[in-house]
Design a protein that fits this description.
about 350 residues; alpha/beta; Rossmann fold; Dihydrodipicolinate Reductase, domain 2; 2 domains; six-stranded mixed β-sheet; 11 strands; globular; binds NADP nicotinamide-adenine-dinucleotide phosphate
Length: about 350
């Protein structure tokens, strides 16, 4: 069946997945029999467009690249109407993350799932705050709610647990879930202060003007909550997860760790203890011999502790246009293959 794809949000990730789908259209058809049209896009900045037979994506990428509004296939349907009334079979929810309320993404996801349309998303809001509810709604309507891109972008962590590691009991998942803070800790080892490093991270675009979500550990806490609920069925709320960021780490702390053959990392972890699941985010001194200690810069990494394989560590990008766009492709392919 030819999938009819809709995108809500045509920012970095929306354009990333559009470029990938354009570039790989023939390859995806030949290799996987995956055929699709992108038929709808809803975006605050560029407008809402709909063509049941397929949009002019090259033109839209050109216009968005110049920060111009869309001019072709404009529709008067608002986003919720478009979600429900278009011929879209799978919606990609790619608007901003709101880890307090879930933001408009919650309404988008609910509208799509309840009208029998699959949802794939890299938006942590609905996934971290409402995963069990959204999954139940998807099941009720016979569709999928897939969220690979919400943790470590396209680096396959949710799919790793669900696919290749299926059959293992996973007792612990711990690692580096926030690239910005890992970059900052890596740079502080070179002798710079927290404030100096934060300024460089902001200049490089790693940290936002308000860096709170990264440096206080809230972004990592959202991801930990997702892992706890999706991999370990923990049924926990984001506010149940104790969270400490890196703002109190000083150059003296960095030296202290170095002298002991260790390195500071902001570690998000989820661990089964008896019938409980304990989750947390906090800076930890990791032994230099551990695979996570060697992960420097804006890279993400997670170690899965399993009964049959011992520790399995995966290292890869945690952000980026194509890297996160790829997470959307993997979920689209998973729907196609199912
Ligand atoms: N970029 C990454 O590397 C990355 C990695 C992992 C996960 N994510 C997650 O993926 C999602 C998309 O990220 P992004 O980097 O593509 O964000 P982005 O560049 O800010 O793009 C979001 C787009 O959605 C539009 N938008 C906002 N609210 C909307 C609404 N209610 N209806 C329709 N459009 C709306 C925005 O328009 P305005 O600009 O006018 O608001 C913007 O064009 C976020 O939830 C993010 O946390 C991103």
């Amino acid at each position: 069946m030819k999938q009819k794809i809709g995108l809500i949000g045509f920012g970095t990730v929306g354009r990333g997945i559009s470029e990938i789908l354009l570039d790989k259209k023939e390859y995806l058809k030949e290799k996987y029999g995956f055929e699709f049209d992108i038929v709808a896009v809803a975006d605050f900045a560029y407008g809402n467009v709909y063509n049941p037979d397929g949009l002019d994506i090259p033109l839209m990428l050109e216009q968005a690249g110049k920060k111009e509004k869309f001019t072709k296939d404009l529709t008067n349907l608002n986003t919720i109407q478009l979600i429900k009334d278009s011929n879209v079979t799978v919606w990609c929810e790619l608007t901003f993350t709101d880890l307090n309320t879930g933001g408009p993404a919650v309404d988008h996801v609910k509208a799509a799932l309840s009208s029998g349309k699959h949802v794939v998303t890299s938006n942590k809001g609905p996934a971290a705050l409402l995963y069990p509810e959204m999954k139940a709604l998807a099941d009720e309507n016979g569709v999928k709610f897939l969220i690979e891109g919400t943790v470590c972008a396209g680096t396959p962590v949710i799919n790793l647990a669900d696919g290749p590691l299926a059959g293992c009991t996973i007792s612990k998942i711990a690692g580096i879930l926030n690239g910005t803070t890992n970059y900052m800790l890596s740079e502080m080892e070179k002798g710079m202060s927290y404030d100096e490093v934060l300024k460089i991270a902001q200049d490089l675009g790693y940290a936002e003007a308000d860096p709170t979500g990264d440096v206080e550990g809230y972004d990592a806490r959202g991801k930990v909550t997702i892992l706890a609920n999706i991999v370990m069925d923990a049924g926990i709320k984001i506010t149940d997860v104790p969270c400490q960021g890196i703002t109190n780490i000083t150059p003296d702390d960095i030296d202290f760790a170095k002298k002991q053959g260790k390195r500071w990392k902001l570690i998000g972890s989820v661990e089964k203890k008896g019938d409980k699941v304990i989750a947390s985010v906090a800076p930890e001194m990791v032994d230099i011999s551990h695979p996570l200690a060697g992960v420097m810069g804006a890279t993400n990494a997670l170690t899965f502790t399993t009964d049959l394989l011992g520790d399995v560590t995966i290292v890869g990008p945690g952000a980026g246009k194509i890297e996160t766009g790829f997470s959307i492709l993997t979920d689209l392919l998973a729907i196609h293959r199912s």
